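Model: Ready when you are.
Researcher: Fold this.
Model:
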Amino acid sequence: MAKRRLVIVPGIVLAVLLLIGTLLALPGRSLSQPKGLPTSALKDQGAPGRLSAAQIEQARQIAMADGRVQQALGGEHYQFVHALPVWHDFGPASNACAVHTCAQVELFDFTRILTLVVMVDLDAGQVTEVIPMPHSFPEVNAELADLAIRLASSDPKVLAEVKGRHFEASMAPDNAWMLTGPCAVHWCVGPSFEVEGVDAPLIVIVDLNDLAVVHVTWSQSSAPSGPMPMEEAPEACPDPGTVSQDGWSVNYEPTNTDGLRLYDVTYNGQLVFQSLKLPQVNVWYASGGYGYMDSLGCNGIVPPYGQTQVIQIGGGFQILQDFRMSGWPHNCNYRYEQGVTFYADGRFTPEVSVYGPGCAYDGLYRPFLRVDIGPAGQLSNFFQYFTDGGWTSPAVEGDFPKNEQPQVQGHQWRQLGADQSGYQVSPTGKDDEHYIELVHYADEGDNDLPTQGTDPQQIFPLQWANGESIQDQDLLLWLVPESQTTQNPPYCWSAGGTPNPCTNGLDLQVTGPVATLPPPSATPTATVTPSPTVTTTATATPSPSPPVGSMNQYLPLVSK
C-alpha cells in the first residue's frame, strides 16, 4: 500500500486520530474485507492491470515533488488516494506513455471538491500533465473505505437500526450522492450492512469531507441477500486485443474505471473514431433518497467478469465485455455489459445493457458512453439533428435528446465529415436518450476519468458545455440513456428469474462514401519527449448554464 499524504488545517489532526483510535477499539462488531474495492488498493504485487507497490510509491513521489502539483494544491486539505496504471488512454501531452510505463496519480482536494489528476512518466521520472477536475471523485482506497465503515459502525443512527444484532459491513457499492445536503457536493460513499435476521441490507451514506454519517435507510428490494452461490471470476484484467475483419480494424483494451475502451478504429483504412468508452453509470433511488455513481473497470467498483469476447454474427462481429460485482444478482450488486457490433457494410452499433438488481425497486440508471467520433477524420466534423420535418445544424454545444417526432427512416442525428459523408444515427433502445455534442478537449476525458458529478441536477458532460461552436470542429459525443427499473414486467432486473436487462445504444449507418484521408499518425517512438502542460488554475471556472430544455432533473421521477 502506498503511503498517503494529508494536509489539513491545525487542530483537525488530533481530532481525526482520536476518532480513529476510538473506532478501532469498538467491540462486538464484524467488519468484513471491503468488497468491490479497487484491486490496486488491496494488492501490492505487480500484475496486469495494477502497479507494484514500488511503482505506486515512485509515482507518488514524482507527483508530489512537481512544482505545478504543489501550486495546484495550494496548501489546501488534500490527500493522495492512489496511482493507477496507464494503457493508451491519455492525451497528446503524454504521448510518450505509448512506449513508456506511466501512472495516473489521483489526489483529492477536500476544500475545493476536486480531483487532481497527475500523469506521471515513470521511465522519464517526470510529470507530463496536471489536470484539475472539479466536481469529481477518485475511487475510494482501502484506508478511506475502512474509515468509512468504522464511522458507520459506531454511528447512533446505524446502531439504532441494527439493534444489537450481528452484522457484516462492506464497501459495495462505492461513491454515493444525494439530491440535497452535503452529499450533493461532498465526496460521499455508501457502505452496506448485512444484518443478522434481516433480508435487506442497511444502506449508510458517509460524508468523507465531514467524517459523518448523513443518511441511513434499508434497501427496498426483493433480490436475495447473503452469500452468493456462484463461482467468482478470477481477479485479473482482460487482455487487450485487435480485430481485423470485414474492412474494420479495431483495437480494444481494459481501463481502470472507464469500462472497455475501443480506440484508433478504422474502416477501409480510414479513421472512424479515436476512442469509445464507458466512464460510469449513475443510479438513483427515489424511494431511498440516495444514489450511486458506479465505475466499471479493473480498478473500478464493478470489475470485468472474464475476458473480452469477440463474437461472430451474420454480416459482422461484436466485441463484448461483461462487468459484474462478485455478489450479483444479490441485493446491492450490479452488472453491466458494454458491446459494439461492427458490420461489413460500414455500420456499427455501440450499446450498454443494465442488469440490476441494485438496491431498490425503482432504480433510474444513466450510463455515460463517451465517443470521440470523427467521420473521415477528427477535424472538420459536423452535427445535425432531425426536427420539424427537416435537418437542423445547431450552432453551439448542448443536449439534443431523443424525441418522438417523425424522423428520416428512424434517424434522429447525423455525424458528418467535411465532405458531408459520415453516419446517420438512430437510437436502438426504447428508453429516453440524451445525445450531447461537445467540442473535443483532451483534458475532458482522454485520460481515465475519475467519477464525475457533484451537481445532481445536471447530466455531467454538460459541465463542459460553454457555448462553443460545434460545426466544422473536432467533436465529442456523449450518449446518456435513462432506464427506469420495473418489476412487472421486470426490466433492468435480474433477481428471481431470467435476467431482463435494459439495453440502449446507437445504430450508426454510413451515408455517402467515406472521404479519403491520410491514416492516423504512427505510434510515437521512445525518443518522443512530451511537453509538460498544466491547466493554470485548479479553481473551476463556472460554465454558462445550459438552456432549460437541455437539463433533465432526477426529480420528479416518472415511472415508465
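Researcher: Now this one.
Model:
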Amino acid sequence: MSELDPVRVEIIRNALVSAAEEMSVTIWRTSRSSVVREILDYSTCVFDAGGHSVAQAARMPVHLNSMAACLEDLLAGPMPIETWNDGDIIVTNDPYSGGQHLPDILTFKPVFFEGRRIAIAGVLVHHLDVGGGAAGSYDASATEIYQEGFQIPPLKIDEGGRRNQAVIELLLANSREPANVGGDFASQLAALDIGVAGLQRIAQRYGADALAEATKTIQNFSETAMRQLIGAVPDGVYAFEDFVDDDGIDLDQPLKIRAVLHVTSDQLMVDLTGSSGQARGPVNCTLNMTRSAVICAILMSIGSEVPANAGCYRPISISAPEGTVVNARHPAPVANRMAVGHRIVNAVMGAFAQALPDQVPAAYYGVSYAYALNAENDDGSRQVYFDLECGGWGGHPDSDGADGFSCGFHNIANSPMEMIESVYPVTFLRYSLIPDSGGAGKHRGGLGLAREFRLDAPAGSFAANLDRFTIAPYGLGGGAAGRPGRLMFRPADSTEEQALSSKVSGLRLESGDVVRLETAGGGGHGPASERDLNASKHDLEEGYIS
C-alpha cells in the first residue's frame, strides 16, 4: 500500500478531525461558565505547519472561518512563523489583529515532532466578561473599542513553555467574573496541550512527511469539491440587499448590506460594495469577521458537504471597502458584530436564491440574541448571567422551516433553565414557541421563541444586543416575512409592559422586575394562501403569544 493512497489520506483526515474534537471535549468537560459549558460558545481547529486550516471540530462557523484568517494575519504581520518555537502559545483578542470582538480570545500553539514544526493547534473561547461598559462586555452604547473591554494585542503568553502569568492576572483584574473567566481560560490552555499531544501521536504513527503530504491532499480535495459546486451555479451576477435595524445609537437609520455575487465558471467573487458606512454603535464587522460570514453563507447555500478548510476558500474572493460596516476602521466598536455578520449571511444567501431558487431557504431569524444580567446580591457579590437565544429557520423550497432552531452562523446550544436558576438569582416564567410567528408560505417559516425571567436579586443591570425588531426576516418565492422580535420589560410594581429597543445598555432592574425576549420567526417560502397571509398579519399586529 502506498503511504498516501486515498485510504491512508482519509484515515489521517479523520485522525486530524479527532484531534480537534478532543480539544473540544476537553473544554466542554473542564470549563466553568455556562456560556462555554452549556451554550458551547467556543471552537477548536487544527492547522498545517504553515498555518493553513485543515480540520475542525463541529462547533461555530463564525469562529472557525475567522480563526484561519486571524492566524494568517498574525503570521503575515506581528508573529512570523519563524519566531514560533516549541512551547510557545500566542494569544490575542484584538479585532483589528484578526480577532472578532473582545470576549473571543484566540490561542494558538505550534506542534513540534522530532524538532520539526508539523502543525498548529488553535482554540477560540467566548469568555463571560472581559470588562467594558456593560455586563458580558456587550455595551450597546459604546462608540469606540476602548469602551468594550480588556484588549490583548498579539503576544506570547507562553514562551518556550514558560508562562507569563501577568497577562492572565491583568485579564482577570478587568473581568466582573474572574473565577469563571479564569477557569475557562485554564480550560482553553489545557485543550491546546491535548491537541498538541494528539497531533504528535499522528506524526508518530504515520510520519511527519506523510502528515504534511496528507494535509495538502485534504486541502486540495476541498478546493476541487468547492470548484465543482461553484461550477454548478449558473454563471452570472446576482445581487441582494438586507438591512440591520440600526446601530443602537443612531436610531431609525437602517444599515444596508448589499451582496453581489459574480459567478464565473468555477470561481466566485462576493462584492459587498454598496453596504453602509461604518456605524457609530458597536455593530461593525472587521474584514476577517466579514470573510467568516461570507464563507459560512456560501457553505450553507451550496457546499454543506465540503470539508471546511483552507482549500475550500481558494476559489472565493471577497471585496469589502474599508470604512464600511463590513470592514470597519480602528477604533470602531465591534461588540455586537453579529448583527451585521448575520445580515451578511442573509444577504449572500438571498443572492444565491436568485441563482438557485429550488435550493436556498428563506431568511432565518438572523441575529444572535445576546443579553446579559449583572445581578447584585445581598452579600455585595455580583454575578453575570449571559445568554444567547435563537429563533425560527426560513422555509425551504421542500419543507417548513425548523422552529426555535440554532444553526448556521453561530450554531449555539441551549442553556437549560433549571441549570440557570440553580446558579443565578433569576426565575423563569415562560419559555415557549410563539404561535404563527413564522412567515406564511407554501412552506412556512419556523417559529420564534419567547423567554421570560424575573430578577430575584435585590438589584441588577441589564444589557442586550439584538436585532430584527423592525426589519423582519425575508420570505422567498412569494412567501411572507417572519414576525419580528421584541424585548419587553415589566416593573415589579406594575402590570403594564414597556417595549424596549433592540439594543439596551445599563437598564436598572429591581427585585421582581420581569424581562421577556421574543425572537423572530423565519421567512416563508413559496406563495401563501390569502387566509395564511391574513393570519400572519393579525398575529404581527396583535403580538400574539401563548
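Researcher: Key takeaway?
Model: The longest helix spans residues 178-206.
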